[in-house]
Amino acid sequence: RKKVTINTIRKLYNDNEPITVLTAHDYPSASFVDKAGIDICLVGDSLAMVALGHESTSPVTMEEMLHHCRAVARGAKSPFMVADMPFGSYEGSISEAVNNAIRFIKDGKMEAVKLEGGTEMVETIRAITRIGIPVLGHVGLTPQRQSSLGGYRVQGKTLEKAKKLIEDAKAIQEAGCFGMVLETIPEPVATHITKLLKIPTIGIGAGPGTSGQVLVQLDMLGIFDRFAPRFAKTYANANSVITDAIRTYHKEVKERKFPAKEHCYPMEDGELERFLN
Ligand code: KIV
Ligand code: NA
Prior knowledge:
By secondary structure, this protein is an alpha/beta fold. Helices cover 42% and strands 13% of the residues. The chain contains 12 helices and 8 strands. The chain has helices at residues 6-14, 27-35, 47-50, 62-75, 94-106, 122-130, 146-149, 159-174, 187-196, 217-220, 238-254, 271-276; strands spanning 19-23, 40-43, 80-84, 112-114, 135-140, 179-183, 201-204, 212-215. It has an 8-stranded parallel β-barrel with strand order 1-2-3-4-5-6-7-8, surrounded by 7 helices. Strand 3 (80-84), helix 5 and strand 4 form a beta-alpha-beta unit. Helix 5 (94-106) packs across helix 6 (122-130). The longest helix is centred in the C-terminal third of the chain and has 17 residues, at 238-254. The structure holds 3-methyl-2-oxobutanoic acid and sodium ion. The site of 3-methyl-2-oxobutanoic acid has 10 residues, from loops. One of its GO terms (cellular component) is mitochondrion. One of its GO terms (molecular function) is 3-methyl-2-oxobutanoate hydroxymethyltransferase activity. It is an enzyme of class 2 (transferase).
């Protein structure tokens, strides 16, 4: 498949073709994204929860993100590669944000970064896009700010909150984002924002009116089972497939059924036996 670039993304958007985004956090999950022909591979900081077992996304560090990014970059060659800037890597100062965005390109082998926030992030987004690093915005439910949001709740449900969300989306478009994630917001708000903007919206829990969709791979495969938000459609029950496989292995070893003859390496006919006798 031809390499997906930011121009491909623009073309998909202009052609009104839905843009597919899926997360990956290591080499095998990245190769699945690649093989399936997904447009954008996202190294989301959701990996903090689904791959590292943290309670939220906040603990994951730049170094950890970069380590995962490099593995993902080795596994996915065709998709456009985007990484989440982790909590604390871009809020403190603009120069820190710019330097960390550069690290994702140089050390992480990524092509773009994603960061959470609306109007308050405008200067940061401008500074990063100005040096040639594409930025994917992220508004609505911003998991890095879950403490101040009071948990993982639907955002923009009242008219007043929806207006603020629309303002945020317009502001980060103006700041230079090439697209933005709309997470867990009412469908009519997401559809309205999508119509208003000139850049693609990528929805998660935002309904079918967005320019594209994103899911967390371990959610949609039914592997991560700690909780399941309404939007997390499971396309496979890989959790039970994997658990069954490992249980069977455990059982077969205990019962001396594995390894069988076909898993063993034979020697030249009778050679060792003759030597020993
Ligand atoms: O971290 C992540 O995986 C994300 C997507 C769900 C948009 O931010
Ligand atoms: Na994220």
